[in-house]
Amino acid sequence: MQTYYDSLCVKTYDSREEMGAAAAKDAAACLKKLLEEKEEVSCMFAAAPSQNEFLEALLKEPGINWQRVHAFHMDEYCGLTQESEGTFSHFLCSAIFHKKPFCSVNLINGEKDFEQECVRYEALLQKYPVDIVFMGIGENGHIAFNDPSVADFQDKAVIKKVELDEKCRRQQVNDGCFPSLEQVPAYALTVTVPGLMKAKYHFCIVPGSRKAEAVRDTLTGPVAESCPASILRLQPRACLYLDRESASLL
Predict the structure, then answer these.
(1) Nearest-CA neighbor of 77 among 158, 178, 174?
(2) pLDDT tens digits for 97-144?
(3) Beta partners for 191?
(4) Could you give the C-alpha distances from 199 to 134, 178, 209, 239, in angstroms and in order?
(5) Tens digits of per-residue pLDDT, 7-47?
(6) How far apart are the C-alpha atoms of 165 and 146, rounded to whole Å?
(7) Are 206 and 242 in contact (CB under 8 A)?
């Protein structure tokens, strides 16, 4: 089923697998179209179990010249080594970055001085402006680590250090990324809302019943920082992919 909420296209499928496959097919078509129009393309990826079906399907899509694609990710914990299994760098390297011959893979380093790292990563994003963002929505409505408490639709920064709220940190436990709340880092570096929205295309993949409230608030509440994902309703080339469970409150 396909419908629109303001400018946002919403596609709903019966299962996570169908949702992921459909999102990957659309994403691959967009990538190939852009690669016909320009020499190189930049993509930004979310790191979360909600992206598993999409990433697995995207890997199987034929005809994408990954050697002309620059890869970025949208957030990273502060204080963890890049080799730590809990980092988003580790997740994405395992899921896709080490499985395709990208032109470049640009990882956020949460070990470094956060101010210097923000300057470094912003410079990379200016050098290779992001064309496509592959993203999800958090249980609290966040996009990247822009929780309601820190999201700013007018943010002047491109990437910044933020404190994670408890619901956001608890989601990491619910997702099986950490064994307990105490082990989830309290701070992270995140690309800001304006930084994410600079991209031309947004593919937002959101499965599961634990996301149903956030999806409802994204689509039917006000467009406001109280639900950061609501900003997607103002994006003319954005698409939200849902399964039956995540769409259950619509």
Answers:
(1) 178
(2) 999 999 999 999 998 889 999 999 999 999 999 999 999 999 999 999
(3) 159
(4) 10, 31, 28, 13
(5) 999 999 999 999 999 999 999 999 999 999 999 999 999 99
(6) 10
(7) yes
Query: Quick check: 211 and 50 in contact, CB under 8 A?
Result: yes
Nearest to 143 by CA among 127, 155, 128: 155
Q: What is the pLDDT of residue 26?
A: 98
Q: Which residues are paired to 206 by β-bridges?
A: 242
- 210 contacts 183 by C-beta, under 8 angstroms: no
If 0-12 CB within 10 Å is exposed, 13-18 middle and 19+ buried, where does residue 115 land? exposed
Q: What are phi and psi of 63, to 5 degrees?
A: 85, 10
Locate 232 and state its tokens: 């997607």
What's the Cα-to-Cα distance from 205 to each of 29, 53, 137, 138, 161, rounded to whole Å? 16, 9, 8, 11, 25
Q: How far apart are the first and last CA of the chain?
A: 13
SS (H, E, C) the chain: CEEEECCEEEEEECCHHHHHHHHHHHHHHHHHHHHHHCCCEEEEECCCHHHHHHHHHHHHCCCCCHHHEEEEECEEECCCCCCCCCCHHHHHHHHHHCCCCCCEEECCCCCCCHHHHHHHHHHHHHHCCCCEEEECCCCCCCECCECCCCCCCCCCCCEEEEECCHHHHHHHHHCCCCCCHHHCCCEEEEECHHHHHCCCEEEEEECCHHHHHHHHHHHHCCCCCCCHHHHHHHCCCEEEEEECCCCCCC
What's phi and psi for 90, nearest 5 deg?
-65, -45
- Rounded-to-integer distance, Cα 48 and Cα 51, Å: 6
